């Protein structure tokens, strides 16, 4: 039996923009596999040191890449992380950078319990479009797409667009 090839998708953007919400629902609708890199690191203790300023463990990027390599080669993965420049470029067929308006993001992060510098820095990360620029440098510009992620209508539109893109990719590549 010939195995259907499926694409790998990166969902990235500032914390709180809606990567997890979109990624989990997309996996349900398409049968692709959702991977949350933060959770994967916690489960496997894929950390290297501790960030005193932000009071959080530092991701061991090399071990994360090693851990995911085999699955990525099989295809059909949806990867969710708030950074994107340490993954091998060859892994991804398309990259989506989710974007949220500042006040909206501020409210989401505040209700997540973020305060002070952590809250400010994350909102600033979105204002300066840090992750979008990181993605544009790490991947071919033509595979990097920004998606508005402000409300349930945006979520539904994003789900439909990405599902359609996956379907088309599978027709073109099988
Ligand atoms: P991330 O994984 O990027 O950190 P999340 O999926 O956990 O973000 O979402 C953060 C919060 O925002 C969560 O309470 C769900 C809400 N949210 C996500 N996408 C949304 C959307 N399109 N419209 C309204 N709220 C959304």
UniProtKB/TrEMBL annotation:
InterPro entries: Adenyl_kinase_AK6, P-loop_NTPase. One of its GO terms (cellular component) is cytoplasm. Keywords: ATP-binding, Cytoplasm, Kinase, Nucleotide-binding, Nucleus, Ribosome biogenesis, rRNA processing, Transferase. It is found in: Cytoplasm; Nucleus, Nucleoplasm; Nucleus, Cajal body. It comes from the Eukaryota. GO terms for molecular function: AMP kinase activity; ATP binding; ATP hydrolysis activity. Its main location: cytoplasm. Its EC number is 2.7.4.3. Residues 111-121 are annotated as: LID. Broad-specificity nucleoside monophosphate (NMP) kinase that catalyzes the reversible transfer of the terminal phosphate group between nucleoside triphosphates and monophosphates. Has also ATPase activity. Involved in the late cytoplasmic maturation steps of the 40S ribosomal particles, specifically 18S rRNA maturation. While NMP activity is not required for ribosome maturation, ATPase activity is. Associates transiently with small ribosomal subunit protein uS11. ATP hydrolysis breaks the interaction with uS11. Monomer and homodimer. Interacts with small ribosomal subunit protein uS11. Not a structural component of 43S pre-ribosomes, but transiently interacts with them by binding to uS11. Interacts with COIL (via C-terminus). This is Adenylate kinase isoenzyme 6. The lineage of its organism: Eukaryota, Metazoa, Chordata, Craniata, Vertebrata. The gene is AK6.
């Amino acid at each position: 039996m010939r195995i259907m090839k499926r694409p790998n998708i990166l969902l990235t953007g500032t914390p709180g923009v809606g990567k997890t919400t979109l990624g989990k629902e997309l996996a349900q609708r398409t049968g692709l596999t959702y991977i949350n890199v933060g959770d994967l690191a916690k489960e496997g203790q894929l950390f290297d040191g501790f960030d005193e300023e932000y009071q959080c463990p530092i991701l061991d990027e090399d071990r994360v890449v090693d851990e995911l390599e085999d699955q990525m080669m099989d295809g059909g993965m949806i990867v969710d992380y708030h950074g994107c420049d340490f993954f091998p470029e060859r892994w991804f067929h398309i990259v989506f950078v989710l974007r949220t308006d500042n006040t909206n993001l501020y409210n989401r992060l505040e209700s997540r319990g973020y305060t002070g510098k952590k809250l400010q820095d994350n909102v600033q990360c979105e204002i300066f479009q840090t992750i979008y620029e990181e993605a544009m440098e790490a991947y071919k510009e033509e595979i990097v797409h920004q998606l508005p992620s402000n409300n349930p209508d945006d979520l539904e539109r994003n789900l439909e667009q990405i599902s359609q893109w996956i379907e088309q990719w599978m027709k073109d590549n099988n």
